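batch job 7 of whatever, protein = Putative nucleic-acid-binding Zn-ribbon protein
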Amino acid sequence: MFNQFTHSLLRVFITALLLLVLSPAIYAQKVVTVNDHVDQHIFNFNEIEWLKDTANKLSFEKISGKDYEHRFTKSLKSTPQTTDLKATYWFKIKIKHNSKANKRYLLEFFDQTIDHVTAYLPQKNGTYEIKEFGDQFKFDQREVHHKNFELYINNDNDETQVYYFKFKSSQISDAIIVLRSVDWFISYALDEYFYFGIFYGMILVFSFYNLIMFIAIRQRQYLYYVLYNLSVGFFEMSTDGIAYQYLWSAATAWNQIAYAFALYATSLFALLFTKQLLLVKAKAPRLNQFILYVIGIRTVLFLYSLFFDRSLFTYKFLEFIPLAVAFYTGIYIYKQGYKPARFFVLGYSFLFIGFTLKFLIMLGFEWLNFGVISYYSLSFCFVLEMVFLSFAIGDKVRILKTKKEKVQRQIIRQMAENAKLKDTLNQQLETKVEERTKEVFHKSLIIEAKNAELLAVNDRLQQQAEEISRMNVLLEQDNQELQTNVEKVTRDRVMSADVDFEEFSRIYPDKESCNLFLSELKWKDGYTCRKCKNTHFYTGHIAFSRRCSKCGYEESVTAYTVFQNTRIPINKAFYMIFLIYSSKGKISSHKLAEILNIRQSTCWTYGSKIKILMEERKAVLKKVSKNGWSQLVLE
């Protein structure tokens, strides 16, 4: 039993000793060896170690020292990321050099959106060479003029050396580091640029074709599709570095935000194209309103990010919302029986899959990141979507053409039926016209005879009408003379006889007729301004008033007359003057009040004023034969 216990204890001791010996090897950073038979190697998992400097104060001397050697963390992901945009990330890799290798090697960094990388490259003598690169530097400053970042390494020894890289970026970036031979890099780069040329060439071809269609047909769906395709190409060029290499190699500030403009334009024109292609406004008004709300919110978010917080641009996954809205709209319209939506849904299905794959990789599902296909999956899906959207547009045009041809055939059939009906009706009408023509011919003979009789009667009536016209002219002349005599007699009676107010009112029935009489009486000898003696005037603002053309003084028709500032209706004031004048001032104020229906005190006050004027102008009134009462009007 003692031996059994001894053996058990020995096994435990040996196991512990093995763990103690092997643990450094298990947990040590994996070294990548330069090998002529391996053209490229992607650093992943424990081949990369990282350290986050939240204070942004660590120097290379510190992190390369022994105190920080064990503070680095092995990457649990195939590709580590700089998720904290305010911090600095340090990465290190180990390479076992091979001086006997026949090829030259370089390190390539795939992510073109990294703002600033400081590389510390070990030398044969133990020192480090420092190189800086990133998309905040001008493109001409790169060691190799390629869309990715490349650094040549010195493979002039057989030692294992540590490479350090300091990352600082304003958006989430991937630390994709690849060891490649220069020969393999050249071959790979040529192939890559070739496929890029095919990809962007397809975008330009599709865009140009649909632009021609827009110019020819003038349907906005083609224009939105062109702008959508160009926005997609713009975004892809901004993220893969092609745009920085060929379009704005010196515009470093613009290169930091160009992708955000492309993403916004992609979402905007995708939704506008969806609305136009699927006739959403007519087929789904509420969904159309919702799309407008999404466009508005996306625009506000873009403007806020641009002017206030550009770190929001890094949340690219927000484009999932406009994509989902467009995708759902296509499914909804397709369920309603609109056939062109089938290709639309199919195209957006591929794009939806590609976007979802990228989104899941970003969330940490590393098993989905299985190489070039997953890295360029969104680009592949864009191509497929572009093809199927073109099918959707063509399908819509085909359906419209089919409907047009069907309508044209219906119109042709209807025109043929109308022509046949027209011929039948014409035949029936010709028969009836012949019958009616015969009847009319017989009746026309009777009508001609009647017309002859009517012409004779018309001649006699015309002679009588001329005689009646002459009599009417004579009667009209007599009536005018009679009316003139009546008016003259009435006016003479008013001016010199005892008439009642009703008869007086026939001559001066209202305020306008009284003012007209005043104006003729007041300015019968011509107008002269009382201020500047000017003799020219304009019509004033008040009826019958006159305004001086020189000084602008306006004189009313009642000014400087006995009616100025009186509150009595002017036609009653006229009659009161006439009554006082006719009775030679003997009529009482009580009588005036009874006749004019005015208060006795008012009649007394105004009558006294008239009687005073009569006394003052006694000599003038004796010489007047008629219209004597009018001499009392002017003051």
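notes: The longest strand covers residues 88-96.
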